[in-house]
Design goal:
Layout lengths: L2 E3 L4 E3 L6 E3 L20 H4 L4 E6 L3 E8 L8 E3 L2 E5 L3 E6 L5 E6 L4 E4 L2 E7 L5 E8 L7
Parallel strand pairs: 1-10
Antiparallel strand pairs: 2-3, 4-5, 5-12, 6-11, 7-10, 7-12, 8-9, 8-11
């Protein structure tokens, strides 16, 4: 299993088996803290691909599934952890129109900084991801 930060893309693994860890995730997250008006919760923007597996006052865990060549809706993510259950060949489109390839091997675990994007599965196989979003800590009393 590989770990990496999504803040800065890098390759990990042996020279023969490198996995590019993208600067964004293939999953979608939303946060319950204040965010810009143009952000949207992945489960509301794209219920076909994103479902809530668990939620409490500290985290929300999303189950994410994209079929071959499926595109997702634009949505936002707070900081969190992404776990790739299968190999993934993806692409992200950002609000400014820029795109980035995002590929990972099954078992890869990455840290994701907050991001807004529209994911796409550019591969011929489906992929599955678990994404854990961290909720803001309540203010001290």
């Amino acid at each position: 299993m590989h770990t990496a930060s999504l803040k800065q893309p890098r390759t990990v693994g042996s020279p023969k088996r490198r996995t590019l860890i993208a600067a964004a995730t293939l999953g979608g997250l939303a946060t319950l803290v204040a965010t810009p008006a143009w952000t949207q919760d992945a489960t509301k923007a794209d219920a076909k691909h994103y479902t809530v597996a668990l939620e409490n006052d500290q985290v929300r865990v999303l189950r994410i599934h994209y079929g071959p060549h499926e595109k997702g809706a634009m949505h936002s993510h707070p900081a969190g952890v992404v776990i790739y259950l299968t190999d993934a060949q993806g692409k992200f489109t950002f609000p400014d129109g820029k795109t980035m390839a995002a590929n990972a091997k099954a078992g890869t675990v990455v840290w994701s900084e907050p991001v807004t994007h529209a994911p796409e599965n550019v591969g011929d196989k489906p992929f599955d991801v678990i994404q854990v979003e961290f909720k803001a800590k309540p203010a001290a009393k």
